[in-house]
Write a structure and sequence with these properties.
With about 850 residues, this protein is mainly β. It folds into six domains: about 180 residues, no CATH class; about 170 residues, Galactose-binding domain-like (Jelly Rolls), CATH 2.60.120; about 90 residues, Immunoglobulin-like; about 90 residues, Immunoglobulin-like; about 140 residues, Immunoglobulin-like, CATH 2.60.40; about 80 residues, Immunoglobulin-like. It has two helices and 66 strands.
Length: about 850
């Protein structure tokens, strides 16, 4: 844009006509350091601090008892909530049915999306009383609690009348008109308060967390409060190996191994780990992760095991020992000569028991030359044909093998060498199969799956991913090694199972997360290298033979899906939608018979200068509409039930879906309302990205710098997002669902930090993906003026902050000059980016 420079650094949108993607720059992603850090829309960002040190020795994952942003009973502190016993309101038996109900965060004087604004507190009263019930089935199973609270200025918290935490409390016994003893420190963030002694606080069944929040004065400029409560179960299990790096399998160098235990441990010595029965020479690390160092073993099979006399224990009281002889504590590598070609993949896998054998697929670790049919022999007979190039796969075809044990061997006279020839020679080798024409294939089928998991099953990393459930309908066990799952019928071996046995009438859940995890060790789940499309796509389970055949599939595609609704076989074998998924268990009957109509918004997205009322409606009689204001996906259990028009008097993001018992809910609709945006920010189109906050921040967030998730790549670190373009002149544009990733090179990814305004770390670049996983397979819109390209599958939001002097104008001018003289060049435009 020439002639008027935007008031804020714009995000740049550019595309080379030679490239299959587009770069979209973005505006003002830097976050202020204050708690009301604003991304052009007044989004408040809260960061949960790490667990208290005393929790680090407890292996069990936290159990959420009360979530942040939960709905509480609350009462203004205009007088005592209970008399004559002023402490009665803190206990279980108190009747709070006359109190108001509202979602946290509770606030005034701040710009916060969602929550409950205390409109009468300023000048009226100085305290707020809160109560929230939670259920504990067996208190003896709980080792500790942690209250994670964000507060400005002070609070005292009680569980069943027993005090558990305080911040800036008043002097003496608190009264309804007490004041906080100090101002809260800025910026206000979540802080963890340890509750290690819970025996006197908890009861079986319903418990109550009571909180009195204090302001520093009745005329204080603001107040903020939100809290969550988590429990840690008692640890009675010993530590196990949770991760190994490098993972077992083929590799070319091996001088160290990093072992991650399931929990922090002590008593680790270098000699505890034995490589080919020789002790490691050194060990470094602490807590749950230790790196063992040793000289490189000889090429070939490397066996790794633990010294049976190792004295490794966890930190529990009493300590639980590590079982050095457990099956998962022994693994092996194939140490390869890096200069020679080796077989990287083999299908069917060596040692497999097959119904028939007419074809073998081979993949080398590098490009090779000189592969002929006669190079591979089956029971002494050469292959009849071979196809393949480079590293493969090479498909060798044979006459049908006879029943019994089959030996496969590379001919001694083969001429296979690394490319370009004459490179190092392939060493060859041999392996065996067993052919049994009467072998039952096994009656394993696709039984249930969930494409978009919002509130359901978590994986071993605490993340909610889509999943696929298999069921062995037969009575005999089935070894799934070599079987495969795929979302593309042209790639039947897209994700191949490791050696895992599915017993008769047993279920197996595989997460469709894109993380591609196939190593079977305790606490580790299986993860495919693809995700499921909520819009519907092909899904197939393939047999282990070569060529593969589909044994259970959706072809050409399964129907479109909904968040938290699974699709599975009912008791009669008919595919149905299920409101309550049952991963790992039998599916119940399903009464879902209809589809709820979409939610209609009375006002479409856009820029606005005056307040208005937003009405939501669905044409389906009896449907209930649930909406959210924080970017999360509305479900039956997440969101606000729509009963009255929503007043839009500040910038809002509204996501809504309609629900009805025994019906599939509507699709989620998303609209961004930009209110009283300064004129300097209305010269450019607005690009609004909307997604749940846990997709951006925290342990699973792609923007999180602690842990450094910004350095991670790939499909596993892509999150669903709603994308809206809003033109300021007429509020026209588009909305489309897609995938969001952090973008940038290794240098800037290591610097990203959303809690700073200092360039370049505070302003992120992003990448958007449009594919059938989210809905539309492409974005079809004339996004860049003056070019014929109007269909895109990838967009990049370019922050331009590797150079903090803002290179947008000169970069775009240079590209346009190159294009004007006939050179292949990128083409660009600008947008202002709004994130939630």
């Amino acid at each position: 844009m020439v002639g008027r420079r935007p008031a804020l650094p714009a995000y740049e949108l550019w595309r080379s006509l030679r490239l299959p993607s587009i770069l979209v720059g973005a505006a003002c992603v830097a976050l202020a350091a204050r708690r009301s850090a604003c991304l052009l829309v007044g989004l408040t960002l809260w960061v949960v601090c790490g667990c208290a040190p005393w929790l680090q020795g407890i292996a069990s994952p936290p159990l959420e008892l009360i979530s942040t942003n939960a709905t509480w009973r609350y009462r203004p502190g205009t007088n005592a909530p209970s008399v004559p016993d002023v402490t009665a309101w803190r206990r279980i038996g108190f009747d709070d049915s006359t109190w108001s109900a509202g979602p946290a965060t509770f606030y005034y004087g701040e710009t916060i999306v969602g929550g409950t604004r205390l409109t009468t507190m300023y000048g009226g009263y100085s305290t707020l009383f809160l109560r929230r019930q939670f259920v504990v089935t067996n208190p003896t199973e709980i080792a500790a609690l942690e209250l994670s609270a964000m507060c400005d200025d002070g609070f005292i918290a009680w569980i069943n009348g027993v005090e558990v935490a305080r911040l800036n409390p008043p002097v003496g016994e608190p009264r309804f008109d007490s004041l906080a003893s100090a101002n809260a420190s800025e910026p206000v963030v979540f802080v963890g308060y340890a509750v290690p002694d819970v025996a006197d606080a908890l009861v079986s069944g319903t418990n109550v967390l009571a909180v009195q929040v204090f302001n520093v004065s009745r005329l204080s400029s603001d107040i903020v409060f939100d809290a969550g409560l988590t429990a840690v179960l008692r640890d009675t299990s010993g530590p196990v190996v949770a991760s190994i790096a490098p993972e077992p399998g083929p590799l070319t160098t091996l001088t160290q191994i990093t072992v991650g235990f399931s929990e922090p441990v002590i008593g680790v010595d270098a000699g505890d780990l034995r490589i080919n029965d020789l002790p490691a020479t050194n060990v470094t690390g602490a807590g749950a992760f230790y790196t063992f160092h040793f000289p490189s073993p000889p090429f070939g099979t490397v066996q790794v095991a633990w010294d049976p006399n190792a004295r490794i224990t966890d930190l529990a009281v009493p300590a639980n020992p590590f079982d050095a002889g457990a099956p998962h504590a022994i693994w092996r590598y194939e140490l390869l000569d890096p200069s020679s070609p080796v077989v990287l993949g083999l299908h069917p896998p060596a040692g497999a028991v097959l119904r028939q054998l007419t074809q073998i697929e081979v993949v080398f670790d590098k490009e090779v030359e000189g592969v002929d049919a006669a190079d591979l022999m089956l029971n002494g007979q050469a292959a009849t044909n071979v196809t393949g190039v480079a590293a493969g796969p090479y498909v060798f075809q044979f006459a049908p093998a006879a029943t019994g044990e089959v030996e496969v061997v590379w001919a001694e006279t083969h001429g296979i060498v690394a490319s370009p020839a004459p490179g190092p020679a392939f060493a060859g080798g041999a392996w065996r199969y067993t052919v049994n024409a009467l072998l039952p294939l096994g009656d394993v089928v696709l039984n249930e799956f969930l494409a978009e998991n919002v509130t359901g099953l978590k994986d071993e990393q605490g993340e909610r991913e889509g999943w696929i459930e298999l069921y062995n309908r037969g009575s005999d066990p089935v070894n799934l090694e070599g079987w495969a799952l795929s979302d593309d019928p042209a790639l039947p071996g897209r994700w191949v199972f490791p050696a895992v046995t599915l017993r008769g009438r047993e279920y197996l859940v595989v997460f469709a997360s894109g993380k591609d995890i196939r190593t079977m060790i305790p606490l580790r789940k299986l993860h495919t290298n693809f995700k499921l499309s909520i819009a519907g796509e092909y899904l197939g389970l393939f047999s282990p033979e070569s060529p593969r055949r589909a044994v259970s599939e959706f072809s050409p595609r399964f129907p479109e899906q909904r968040p938290d609704y699974s699709f599975g076989r009912d008791t009669g074998g008919t595919w149905r939608y299920f409101q309550r998924p049952t991963p790992g268990a039998a599916n119940a009957a399903s009464a879902i018979t209809g589809l709820v109509s979409p939610v209609h918004f009375s006002v479409q997205r856009g820029f606005f200068a005056k307040p208005f009322q937003l009405s939501l409606a669905s044409e389906t009689p009896g449907a209930e509409i649930v909406y959210t204001l924080n970017g999360s996906v509305p479900t039956w259990t997440n969101g606000i039930l729509y009963t009255n028009p929503i007043v839009i008097s500040t910038t809002r993001i509204v996501r809504a879906a309609a629900f009805k018992t025994n019906c599939l809910p509507s699709r989620v609709e998303t609209h961004t309302y930009l209110y009283n945006i300064p004129s300097a920010r209305r010269y450019l189109p607005a690009l609004s990205l909307v997604t749940a906050s846990n997709n951006l921040y925290g342990a699973t967030g792609i923007m999180e710098y602690n842990p450094p998730n910004t350095t991670k790549h790939g499909l596993a670190w892509e999150r669903p997002v709603s994308v809206e373009l809003i033109r300021p002149e007429d509020n026209g544009g588009f909305q489309v669902d897609g995938g969001l990733r952090v973008h940038g090179g290794g240098y800037i990814r290591g610097l990203y930090n959303y809690r700073t305004t200092t360039p370049p770390a505070g302003k992120y670049s992003f990448r958007l993906y449009f594919r059938g996983d989210y809905g539309a397979r492409r974005l079809n819109y004339p996004l860049i003026p003056g070019i014929p390209v109007e269909s895109f599958d990838t967009l990049v939001l370019r922050a331009g902050m590797n150079d903090p002097t803002n290179p947008f104008i000169r970069d775009e001018l240079a590209r346009r000059l190159a294009s004007d003289v006939g050179q292949v060049a990128a083409h660009g435009t600008f947008v202002n980016l709004f994130l939630n």
